[in-house]
Target: Glycosyltransferase
Amino acid sequence: MEERKEKMIVIFPYMAQGHIIPFLSLALQIEKKGYQITFVNTPLNIKNLKQSLPLNSSIRLLEIPFNSSDHRLPPETENTDSIPFSLTLTLLEASVSLKPAFRNLISDLVRGGAPPLAVIADIFFGWTAEVAHEFGIFHTIFSSTGGFGMACYYSVWMNLPHNYTDSVEFTLPDFPEAGLIHRTQLSANVLAADGTDPSSKIIQLLLSSWVDSDGILFNTIEEIDKIGLYYFRRKLSLPVWPIGPILLSVDSRARSNKVCGISSESCINWLDSKPQNSVLYISFGSQHTISASQMMQLAKALDSIDINFIWVVRPPLGFDMNLEFDAVEWLPEGFLKRIEEQNRGLIIVKWAPQVEILLHKAVAAFLSHCGWNSVLESISAGVPLIGWPMGAEQFYNVKYLEEEVGVCMEVARGTNFEVRNEDIVKKIGIVMGENGKGKEIREKACEVKKMIENGGRDEEGYKGSSVRAMEEFLNVAAFFGKEKKVRGQKCRMNT
Ligand SMILES: O=c1ccn([C@@H]2O[C@H](COP(=O)(O)OP(=O)(O)O[C@H]3O[C@H](CO)[C@@H](O)[C@H](O)[C@H]3O)[C@@H](O)[C@H]2O)c(=O)[nH]1
Model:
């Protein structure tokens, strides 16, 4: 019993599906190694999580009080997937108010005789380091984004380099290895940022607290993401552990009460009826959507190219995600009827069983905004990407995957631009084509899939890089615990 108490880890993600999903997966993975997990979040997220836990899991879910109405948010909204995109900054600002309640929670655990061995917190919850250190607890950040994308995102927000040049392209002052960044690779809130606006104030505050942590875990693989990981090792002088891919199993996803627009079974049956490598999967993650005119252009492109596809359709930009939604209103006249008659397209409303789809042999490519979870799910399945980045670090994920890794081709950028259906048709044609660039990208995707499998291999006499990184992190946390908890003391070990 005593042993188990010693090995308790507190896990605390930001309130967004793109963050909660990999944190839950991380929690399940660490639990399997014999650690007790306390998973912290706001009441509605905890309620939703209850069903995602496997029956044999002993993960403890702990609520931290939060009332969205106190923070200029609609009532009962505690996750980016239930608010309009325009309120994402408001939710981020509101999340800082969780600090006193988090401190009480840790204090209760310590006073109750079960001090955590470590706290693993979100990239937006660097402030938890101060709380952890107050109680002599080891602290790490877990980045659910990859190294390169996060390094560009971090550098762009901390330096706001576009304010110091009139040029459309520039390098990052502390990350020149990233190469040229184009203004169109900055999201709208970065473009408007000058250091005094609400976005840069909150994001710079949150990112600058990373340095208070004792190390950073990344949901990535050392072999494919060296440049970005090195940026953080150099910048923060902290251990950086690439432990990915941390992916939630199909089983745990199925248990969550996220309502899919289709049953997994119907979706798989549909895919079973299609030839190998013939289907394009289209989805833009848990919080993004395209504009009404972009939706029309994408539909026109699909209408004019002879491929099979699955498209997760959501209300276009500016429309409430939670309202009833009839896809027909936003698509060209007769589109749904035509694709049904041709039996070559599946429109799924709002949410699809993504991992099952990507694992199916009929899927040839993924047209994605390239949120990092989608990227990992895709490349782990050997599926190449057609990138349409929309915000955050997605622009840099696409840049890296296209220029350095070679498994992606960018088709469009952002949600405020006109896209032309002819351009979409051309890029889909290239990536799904049997020869030339398409063949090259698919071969590279298979190579990367093997590298990822290798990183996670744990066999007699061989441990992959991600397995070693996870072991090292747990050993350092245990060492910190044994060193005894001096108030405010920090552990700086080099990897
Ligand atoms: O119909 C759907 C749509 C999404 N998903 C899942 O939802 C997650 C979406 O995550 P991601 O692809 O990373 O997209 P976002 O939700 O947009 O992710 C946010 O979080 C990511 C990780 O921090 C960042 O990389 C992104 O920029 C940020 O927008 C993935 O696991 C998907 O499998 C489904 O299962 N079905």
About this structure: Residues 436-455 form the longest helix (20 residues). The chain has a mean pLDDT of 93. DSSP finds 20 helices and 17 strands in the chain.
